[in-house]
Amino acid sequence: MTLISSFSISLAATPPCINPISTVDWSFFADTIEFKGTCVCSTSGAIKVGVKLQLAEPIAFIETPNKAWDFICFGSTRDKFSVQKKDGTNLGKKGAKTNAHYIKYPVFGVLNITFDNLCTMHDLEFDIIPTGLSEINPLLWDDELAMIAQPWKLLFANPIAQVLCLADCVSSSVVFPSNVDTFETVRNGLFYCAGCWGAIQPNTTTTRGKDSVVESALTAVKLIDLLHESLQLKVYKEVSGLGWASNFSSGFPIPSDVACQPKFFPVIVKSQYWLNLSYPVAWDAIPIGDFPPKWSWFKKYPSKEENIWTIWRIRNCCLGFQFP
After folding, report:
1. pTM of the model
2. What is the bridge-based pairing of β-strands 273-279 and 46-63?
3. Which InterPro entries does this chain map to (predicted)?
């Protein structure tokens, strides 16, 4: 653990959206900066020539509160004695259901770090995406409706498909910030798996009810996948392994030249995203599907089942000069 991460653990009780300094794994930003060669971009009649830079930026928080309309990311909670129809259920033998909120939150902007030339997000406003709220989006809440609306996902509800996820589990567990492109083809090709955490499909917040920390991470991945499917999230990094996903998505073109122009893709690109636990215990950024014993032990308080994840996006951009 770095000094930054150790320091953040002691301050993780502060809601991440109010104090992102101590709950965001800033060492991950430094670990992922890498020059990837040269680039030439042509946009709006101008030409930009420079070097291709890879970096990571925190773009959002995903929280998994039990109570509906609790925004623990901002320290806002309902009275513990109040009850609503879409309140979640606790861990148990019959599984569990939580709520989920995707909060677009450009942390660089909040901290007034304006990296214009580094292509990072620095808008000063946060944005709660309506389709990223389980209280509003029935595809996140209702299992039966989700299967009716997304029947193709039944194709992956079979033993063979799930056995293949073992390869994703192994690949995801040996990826580190220093080799983010390792096993990229395998991880992106098995787009319906979340490594050692389970299957992404269906995209609802229903979980097995065994480990709230790991299952909240899986819920966060499901939400990211659903936002990709509804073309609300883009690909910002040149990646491999999207051929199968492209064919599955009715031949949706594989994103190219995204360093100059990010593009939509209707399937989650797992090698683009990393997650760091921000609440109730702050911890290092991890790849999607990382082997749980490496990071999940001792990450919850006895009285807390809600978790908040910082979503990191690894991106490529063209850093240089524009002519004319």
Report:
1. 0.90
2. unpaired
3. TraU
Are 86 and 134 in contact by the 8 Å Cβ rule? The answer is: yes
Torsion of CA 243, 248, 251, 255, to 10 degrees: -50
The separation between CA 98 and the C-alpha centre of its own chain, rounded to angstroms, equals 17
DSSP 22-53: TTS-HHHHHHH-EEEEEEEEEETTEEEEEEEE
Q: What gap in Å lies between CA 121 and CA 110, rounded to an integer?
A: 10
Which residues, given as ranges, of the chain have pLDDT below 50?
1-12
- What are 274-291's pLDDT values in tens digits? 999 999 889 999 999 999
Q: 312 φ, ψ to 5°?
A: -100, 135
Q: Are 322 and 46 in contact (CB under 8 A)?
A: yes
Q: Which tokens in the block code for residue 213?
A: 């920390």
Q: How far apart are CA 66 and CA 226, in angstroms?
A: 20
Q: Which helix (H) or strand (E) holds 2?
A: none
Q: Is the peptide bond before 202 cis (omega within 30 degrees of 0)?
A: yes
Residue 281's H or E segment, with its range, is: none
Nearest to 137 by CA among 61, 203, 72: 203
Residue of 202, 211, 208, 180 lying closest to 288 (CA atoms): 180
Do the beta carbons of residue 15 and residue 73 sit within 8 Å?
yes
Q: Which of 323, 317, 322 has the alpha carbon at shortest distance from 34? A: 317
Place of tokens 């293949």: 164
Please state, in angstroms and rounded to a whole number, the distance separating the CA atoms of residues 5 and 283: 6
Q: What is the pLDDT of residues 84-102, one digit of tens each?
A: 888 887 665 678 899 999 9
Beta bridge partners of 51: 38, 319
The two three-digit tokens of residue 26, written as one number = 């800033």
SS3 call for 300: coil
